[in-house]
Design brief:
about 140 residues; alpha/beta; Ribosomal Protein L13p, Chain: A; 4-stranded parallel beta sheet; about 30% helix
Length: about 140
């Protein structure tokens, strides 16, 4: 008996919009990653891209618990000696709040070609406006 592989219909991809206002960062990222991978569909297959598009608005209003706002650090490395730079969550939120959500979701998708394709379907915006109203995105309630 052969294993059934579902046909991924690219025309039936849906768009979802999530309001990050007051949502906890990790729970929101897990919910978004599951939709990007297609785990909420009955045709989910681990090695296929069966997920939907996700638009996240109000990225600057996402919540981190505890003292992570000052204690949690993101590190970048230039490749040179002493080229490490550390930046806190509060500093990232002030400069590029979209990167908080993008970084959290990137850590929850596969680390391969499939993961890079999935990340192109994630759109994160600072304010409550987004340019994807023509796609008629369905509103999703963020996980609390």
């Amino acid at each position: 008996m052969k294993t059934h592989l579902p046909k991924v219909n690219l025309d039936q991809r849906k768009w979802h919009v999530v309001n990050a206002d007051g949502a906890i960062l990790g729970r929101l990222a897990a919910q978004v990653a599951n939709i990007l991978r297609g785990k909420n569909k009955p045709v989910y297959t681990p090695h296929l891209d069966a997920g939907d598009f996700v638009v996240v608005v109000n990225a600057e209003k996402v919540v981190v618990t505890g003292k992570k706002e000052i204690d949690k650090k993101f590190m970048t490395y230039s490749g040179w000696k002493g080229g490490e730079k550390f930046i806190s969550v509060g500093q990232v939120r002030a400069r590029h709040p979209e990167k908080l959500i993008t970084h959290a979701v990137r850590g929850m998708v596969p680390k391969n070609r499939l993961g890079r394709v999935l990340m192109t379907k994630l759109k994160v915006y600072k304010g409550s406006e987004h340019p994807h109203s023509a796609q008629q995105p369905a509103v999703l309630a963020p996980a609390k």
